[in-house]
């Protein structure tokens, strides 16, 4: 494809990090032994005029993004099996292709992101209401919760909130308030998100080969997963995943960190829900 026919991309800040993930998914998908298959990502990257090569040296992030995608896909697929008419909200959707890859034909999906990100997304794929819609808002503009909760209540559907590669770019108090607002709006909700350890937020992003190529900045980190209980939100952990536990040969020697508690927290995904009021009451008696 000629360079002048490509979609020009000029993004900054946190939004630019979506280009890292779509590129690393595309590279992995193109491998014969790829962890994931994402043909749409391959197509979109090929159609964008952007210097993706600056991310090529970050081998470990390539593995991490791919394994993370696999885990998020599995959790979302399991949710849909249990709740075929459920609702999935993808926070910071960027150029995620999960709906196109695992949709069950009956669930309702919302891609939530800021205008800059969704404008780029619309150049490649458009929403198809009523089952597949875009919400052009920040996750911290809580009016999106009213939009979704109205539908959730009308359908009496359970909700899965997906937040992949997003929350570490915001302050802890913002993340905590986001979870509080979600709990207030959705009595039956599950959340899956990835986290990074506190030590990573204390280091400059220059130590992260891909993110250092953008203007994004790490802000929120989590120590032990149990620290979430101290937020007094009634968080109940469903499952926890360390990416190092999968494909150790692809990770190399660093995969040995999976045998150390703090090492497992370096690549962690947390799937949780909130206790209902009755359960919380019983636990407090």
From TrEMBL:
The record ties this protein, via InterPro entries, to: Ppm1/Ppm2/Tcmp, SAM-dependent_MTases_sf, TcmP-like
Q: Membrane spanning segments where?
A: none
What SUPFAM superfamilies does UniProt report for this protein, alphabetically?
S-adenosyl-L-methionine-dependent methyltransferases
Question: What is one process in the GO biological process aspect for this record?
Answer: methylation
Keywords per UniProt: Methyltransferase, Transferase
User: What is a single molecular function from GO for this protein?
Assistant: methyltransferase activity
User: Which Pfam families does the entry mention?
Assistant: LCM
Keyword Calcium found: no
Q: What is this protein called?
A: Class I SAM-dependent methyltransferase
Species this chain originates from: Dethiosulfatarculus sandiegensis
